[in-house]
């Protein structure tokens, strides 16, 4: 019989913390303890890379770097490179359940720069070792970020031609001129990964596994596209010829225009998928399980001509298919992966997921929402197979309470009929939905913390194709209380998803 497990979805940024955003602070360690005592096996996070414009973790300046916002300032105080007075004097926003990115950007880097200047980091043997082991991505990233600061945040394709096209003499010149800014960027990465590895080790010691998340695409304004334009569908001036997105559906009449450059899959194949091998080797070290976003793009990807203002004029093109993952398994061995196979799903996508052996995703909300253009039957629990991951919703969805309020009367009736539940108040409808997910045959069950808390859409973390109000929500320490923890524990035991390795015989 396949082992059944469960976990909680909570972004690192959404953790409680003192200084404006969730990070690798004592609150992160407390959350691991909380998950352990709730009988959970998994903590699923969102991408942990530096965020760019719009604050989305799915649009990052780097595929490999970590987000400096997640560096714990308390740890830097303990090191003696910052004072508590300095940290307390900065404005990080007014509300403990919100992230004020403007204040964060203005003030957090001031503190991090002060810490760097006092660190004498170049003499640190651990830092030297980190730089030596990560030069294959760190050199380009640190220079890229130093250049962005030098050019007042301009996108790299707006830089002067010599450095935009990476002419040798220009690279040498800026490496000399921006030496200390480059070192500062390397320092930030050293502190990030030093703190991340400590947190992950603590989680694993307590039998909590980390589920990481990687986007299929990289951002156009990233170190990856600047340093390796040959990997992408760019013209001779490194301008995209086509970009990524999704076609129109019931949730968006004009589709989703993501704007990411598309891969030159023919080139990747010619190189034996070397860049993908490096990328996946890297994330396999970072996480116990890796969720790959937009997995269907490996079967077919949606190509939108560059310059379009919507996704309506795109078309589907063939991706690398199972060939890529056979190559990965041959070179890297088998690793736990979750295939995010949502959206417009075809028979060939379903076949790719089956051939890969990875569990696909089932989102309960999609089973009862007539706005979804996919197959609702795929998301009805009686149609699940064991090798799948069920979610009540994801970071891109409404909360269960918010969603139930927005669907039409017929969809609400359909859901209640399926649940055989006509009496639970709408504000508590999350409870039978969580029970439905937990009781399903799916091997894994992951529930966003907002759904366990019964929160409405004011606590939604992201609404796709919108900017300005996303990725801001944070849970408070008061919400992560004993009562909620014990309720999750009881439900986890009831449906056979208990992490027995953490079971206390005294319970």
How would you sum up this structure, described in words?
With 507 residues, this protein is an alpha/beta fold. Helix 5 crosses helix 8 and helix 11 packs across helix 12. It is built from 18 helices and twelve strands. Helix 1 links the parallel strand 1 and strand 2. The two termini are 26 Å apart. It has an eight-stranded parallel sheet with strand order 9-6-3-2-1-12-11-10. Strands 5-4-7-8 form a four-stranded antiparallel sheet, with no helix packed on it.
Keywords:
alpha/beta, 507 residues, 12 strands, four-stranded antiparallel β-sheet
Report the structural category: alpha/beta
Can you list the strand order of the major beta sheet? 9-6-3-2-1-12-11-10
Shape: globular
What is the distance, rounded to the nearest whole angstrom, between the alpha carbons of the first and last residues?
A: 26 Å
Low-confidence stretches: none
Classify the helix fraction into a percent range. 25-40%
Radius of gyration: 23 Å
- The total beta strand count reads 12
One letter per element, helices H and strands E, the order comes to EHEHHHHHHHEHEEHHEEEHEHEEHHHEHH
